[in-house]
Design goal:
The structure is a homodimer of 312-residue chains. Chain A is an alpha/beta fold. Chain A has 12 helices and 13 strands. In chain A, the strands form 2 sheets. The first copy, chain A, has a 9-stranded mixed β-sheet with strand order 5-4-1-8-9-10-11-12-13, sandwiched between helices. In chain A, helix 3 links the parallel strand 8 (117-120) and strand 9 (140-144). Chain A starts with a strand and ends in a 6-residue tail after the last helix.
């Protein structure tokens, strides 16, 4: 089955301590869809202006990403500009131009409405609700979010969280959302808000996954140099969702308890981490253009050795 | 063989947001020795005043800790007082009284000088040098340190680092010592300073272990409540060193290359993490008084499941 991916499609300007690049393909849906495409066909829901290049369209198409849900309208594509500080850990948003995104209320193509596996990429919760409302019988809905929505759209975010099966957010956001300083308490508290699974991203420290009485600590890949962290979180979500979509989970299993075996979720978190670790090695999605399935399998095995130790 | 443990022995006053306790058994050598004693006999090197209780002495003795290197002198035992902030992550030292510690220059008992496995617990680098100078042919020397020594005794610390086989420090200290923001770069840089193994502790994010071309990311135990973080780092170092001491590594192996197999180091880091995770559940060493070998084995296995995931 195809994975439905909703989110922003953007043209980014990114400044690092070393270099500045403009008109980069970006946005949460772009990163997530490309990441997911290593594992699963994707149905993309988004909007771009008439300044969006034919090359970008072709890039999506070349990755088995269906564009039936992509609106191309007169006007300018959503633009984001950000700057990374010297240690690449801190980022400052320099400007945001919503442009064609401002009035985006997508009507899903008929064939998209029966999606079973869904990634509501990082975007306004109202838009995530709007797409979720159009789905007939989704089996597993993953939502990604960010601090902005906790700050300006908390009520809508909370009602969205109650409707999804898995929430992805980072450590600072998990603390902000729950008022808990312990990430363990925060993860468990978010599960009580609705999602059966919660992934808390910790940047250079890896990721924590919470399930029903189960817990997984995913290590971070020991990268020495990060060229552009933009989209790492979106790639993580996309890789994770794409992997889950690729697993042949019988409808009966899902209909029964709407849960995915925790072992699949563990593997999905690692696959997402692998894709994200590649992505930060270059600007935009440049690194993912050349990565192969074999590269991914190899790094997955490196992840296994990173945290492996023998019983005593 | 016995593990030689050097460090401070203190009476602590600890204030948490919930409770304040005085005259607690503390100090880097106390925590490390008790932690190590789960795995190995210990030879303790330290100093206390005549206010140090018989109960504390008996506690050490009950744990197979040899006190031939413990000086009991007239005067007051070293005292430390600290306060933890509401989230238990930040600590403020309220007072330090060196007392009998001020003029501590230990003369090791003859039988201690042939120690093979050595833990130079967190203490002034000059004192760590002084003890190391008296050892005849140590096989594996582990040093623990803290930011204070980077700030006030950097030269002595650097020359100590060049003499030891393994260095243990936390993430902030690794960054400060190397000027690298990436912990991966920091860990590799410290290895170039001398030690064949480096462990970087990351608190709630676990620990990174660096060896010769090898790397291990140890998860943190998902504790929801921490009652007293004091001594967690010392217990980690002590548990790690005690475990290594307990492994029967043939002298020939060690003489050959002075290295311990990386697999043993991985296990040692986990054992250290297990002991530390128990210790923070109560004030002082109270939790370790009741923990059994079976409890440790059980939690070791939980650590294994925390980060386990299947090949694809």
């Amino acid at each position: 089955m195809s994975l439905l991916v909703l989110g922003s499609i953007a043209l980014d300007t990114v400044k690092t301590p070393i270099e500045e690049r403009t008109d980069l393909l970006g946005g949460s849906a772009s990163y997530a869809a490309i990441a997911a495409s290593f594992f699963s066909p994707v149905n993309l829901v988004g909007i771009v202006g008439d300044d969006f290049s034919k090359e970008n369209i072709e890039f999506f198409k070349s990755r088995d990403i269906d564009l039936g849900g992509l609106q191309v309208v007169p006007g300018k594509t959503f633009r984001w500009s950000g700057e990374y500080m010297w240690d690449m850990n801190q980022r400052e948003t320099r400007s945001v131009e919503l442009n064609v995104f401002e009035n985006f209320t997508p009507d899903l193509p008929e064939s998209y409405r029966s999606a079973r596996m869904v990634l509501l990429g990082n975007i306004a919760p109202a838009l995530q609700h709007h797409v979720l409302d159009q789905l007939i019988r989704p089996h597993f809905v993953i939502a990604d979010t960010m601090d902005l929505w906790i700050n300006i759209a908390k009520e809508e975010l909370l009602s969205l969280i109650a409707r999804v099966d898995m929430l992805i957010l980072n450590d600072g956001e998990a603390r902000e959302l729950t008022g808990e300083t312990s990430l363990i308490k925060a993860g468990r508290k978010i599960r009580e808000m609705g999602p059966s699974a919660v992934a808390i991203k910790k940047g250079e420290h890896g990721c924590l996954l919470f399930g029903d009485g189960q817990f997984f600590s995913c290590p971070a890949y020991p990268l020495e140099d990060i060229h552009d962290p933009t989209g790492a979180g979106d790639c993580f979500a996309g890789g994770l969702a794409g992997y889950l979509s690729s697993r042949h989970i019988s409808d009966a299993d899902l209909a029964e308890k709407k849960e995915i075996p925790f072992e699949f979720l563990r593997q999905a978190v690692v696959e997402g981490s692998v894709i994200a670790s590649f992505n930060v090695e270059s600007f935009s999605m440049d690194r993912l253009r050349e990565v192969t399935k074999a590269d991914i399998a190899e790094r997955y095995e490196i992840f296994r050795t990173l945290s492996r130790f023998e019983a005593i």
